[in-house]
Structure formats: structure tokens, C-alpha cells
Amino acid sequence: MVRFASTLPLLLSLAAGLTGRLVSAGQLEVGVARVDLTPPAELKAGLGGYGQRMGRPAEGVHDRIYAKALVMSSRRRRFAIVTADVLGFPPPIKPAVLEQLADQAWGPDELMLLPSHSHTSIDMMAINPRNVFPIPQIGIYNPKLYRFVVSRLAQVVRAAAKDRAGAVVGTAACRLEGWNRNRRHDDGPVDSELVVTRIDSVDGRPIAALVGFSAHPTILLAEHMQFSGGWPGHLQRGLETLVGNGVTAMYYNGAQGDQSPVLRGGSGSDRWEASQRYGHRLADEAFKLWRQIQTDEHVTLVASRHSFRLPKMQWHLRFTETGGAEYGLTKELLERILPLLLPREASSTAVRLNDWVLVGVPGEMTAELGLELKKQVRRSTGAPYVAIGGLADEWISYILSESQYRQGGYEASVSFYGPTLGRVVLEGCLRAAAGLGELGPGCRNPATDP
Fold this sequence. Notes:
By secondary structure, the protein is α+β, with helices and mostly antiparallel strands. The protein has helices at residues 8-14, 93-100, 143-162, 230-243, 271-292, 323-327, 331-341, 367-381, 402-407, 410-413, 421-434, and strands at residues 22-26, 28-36, 66-74, 77-84, 111-115, 165-175, 180-182, 193-201, 206-212, 248-252, 259-261, 299-309, 345-353, 356-360, 364-365, 385-389, 398-399. The strands form four sheets. The protein has an eight-stranded mixed beta sheet. It has a five-stranded mixed beta sheet with strand order 1-12-13-14-16, with helices on one face. A two-stranded antiparallel sheet has the order 7-11. Helix 1 packs across helix 11 (421-434).
């Protein structure tokens, strides 16, 4: 287990000096919207997640993919969470979305993009304008697709911001043992916490339900060549059906870098069926939690953002045996690719709604680090419900502890900033969370507190 407890006093002492902090307490107003993010067939969009697909265009649509926005405001403060049924976002996407929203003056500390990490959705490198490399395994840049995605993401924020209504908020959590596993080690750390945040209108009409759970959407494999939101898409549709009344269900992944789903009994050999069954049964569990949630009309909305320098770019010594083999990359290619495709600086944005804190992590963090992050944020903020927004805003790489990096394996081979990246990102995320301030004594989380 990683131990970074010594960083906490420093982070708390720096909290007052953080920039980009938005604080507001009182009546919350929210708006929600969704847009269809399924690319038109003429764009010939490829599916991301598996290098074996060689950048081939999708062969149809199994179920449509969406982007959804929740815009929250209170006393002239605002914050937008956008979830999307996609693999991930390259670094240029969020700045491009903000540029399209410039007339409404949205800032980087007011927006969080959260991809589900679906492996049957838009290829991340196909929407990266810095990708000038003709390497089909990593994806070929598609400028029309890039413009389509940026436009739709800006559109959904505008739509959600347009019509807002007074809202009440509440959160609950539980542990779902046996729903996910550590794919690196059978006895490795597992984050089994399911977190549900309920947002209703002041008269009790369901508006939004946010669901966080950590697992790779990899039930569908490389041979599955149709667009699909995967099990997270089925989870959202299932929860919307169970809650009813036009609610918008939004899913965000967690520290899923080494977390895989455990198939539900009776799934059979059909992976499409298994994906649907997993999502629907997870929706059942989320609905049980949703029904238990007590909401509060007095809402504190706080957001904080911290930027930090990343370690020197480098690749793992065994890269060519694992990630390099899948994605057709040699050391010579990496020397050209990494400085163009990956950032030298990253950021973490954290947001709090009463006793729920969501901390954005700009990549695929392992559960060991994620559990440590959640523990320290609970301690620093007093919030009983702390969740991680995995792959938030941009994908920088896998994020492992130093010992995990040195052990090697696939995740280490797709981690491009060396053995200290995990510590650097963890501390950066803690600094963002420290800017949220303390709640003081509050509710307990039965999923984490004995």
C-alpha cells in the first residue's frame, strides 16, 4: 500500500492560496441535457480501445452513445459536469470546447469532462489534432470527427445551462463485493464502492442521478465492431427506466486502471448479452441506493482546480513486449510521438456538493492509488462520500504507484512519465481537493466507516 500521509498537512496549509476556487452556499439551480454523440456513418469513425482493430471504421451501431451535461449554479457560481460514452479525451479537446463556449465565458475550473472509457466507442486518437502519425493501431486523426465531437460537447453544455430549476441534493454509497476485480493480481486492491448522487427538483421530480463505479468497460472485445456505450450505457438506460419521470442518469468511472468487471451469473457466451446484463444489474443496485437517499435543499457548491508539472516523459523498459506490441510502437517512434501527443502539465479539478466530493484524475489511476486518494480527501474535507472521476478532462497515461510501475505489466507499459508519476498525480489531486475546505462533522458513509 502506498503511504503519502505526510503530504496532508502541506496540502491543508496551501488550501487558502489556491486559485480557481468557486464557493457558494444556498439554493442550487441545475439544468440537464443530452446530445447524441454517435458519429454519422459518413464520418467512417473507428472504435478505440484495442490496437488489434487497426483503426477500421465501425460496422454499425448496436446502441447509441451520448454526451450528457449537468450544469449547477448557486449565487452566481456555476459548474458543469459532462459525461460521455467514449474511450477518453485527448488534451486538446477541453480547450477546444471552452473556445466554443467563449461567449458564455466558461473557464477551465468550471467544467469537468468525464468519459466512461467505453471500448466500443470513438477512438481517442482519432479526435486528437496533434496525432499526425499514420499508425492504425493507435488510431488515425479524423478532423471531421474531431469537429463533430467538440461541437456536440459544447452544444450539450449550452443546452443544460439554458433552462435551470431549483434543486435538492443527496448522496449514498455501498460496497458491491464480487462486481469487480484487480486484473494485475488476484489478491490486489479492489475499489468496490458504488456511489449514487440524487438531484431532484424542489417539488420532488427526479432531475439527475450520477453513478460512480470503478471497472473497465471491457466485456466487449476487439472483434465487437459496432458502436456501443458498453455496460455503462446499459447501466444509464436501465436506471433511467427504473427511476422514470424523465431523469437523466450519468455515469463516471473511477480509479479503474487495474479494475475489471466480473460477469454476472447467467450471462452465457454472448458478450453483447453479458454487457447488457452487467449494466442492467448494476442499475438495479444503483436504484436501491437512489431510493434510500435523503435530499437537502441547502446546498454548498465548491469547485477547485490545481495544475501541476508532470515528470519527464519516458517509457517502461519492457514497453515493446506489451503496450508497444499491441499499438505498433517502437522506441524510435515513441521519441517522436510522446512530445506531440502527451502534455507536460496536467490538472485536477475537484467539486463538492454538500457531503459528496468528486475528484478528477487525468488518466487511468490504479485502485491502490485511488483508495489512498479517497482516504486522504475524506480526512482533509470531512466529506463522507468521496468519488474519483477517472480520465477526467484528458488522458495522460496509466497512473501507477512506484512499486507497481517497477513490477511491470501492461499498465506500466502504457504509463509514459516514469515511476514517480503516481506520486505526482496523487499530490496534485490532493491539492485540488484541499481547495474545497472542510465540512466539519457530518454524516457517515456506511460503505467506508465501520
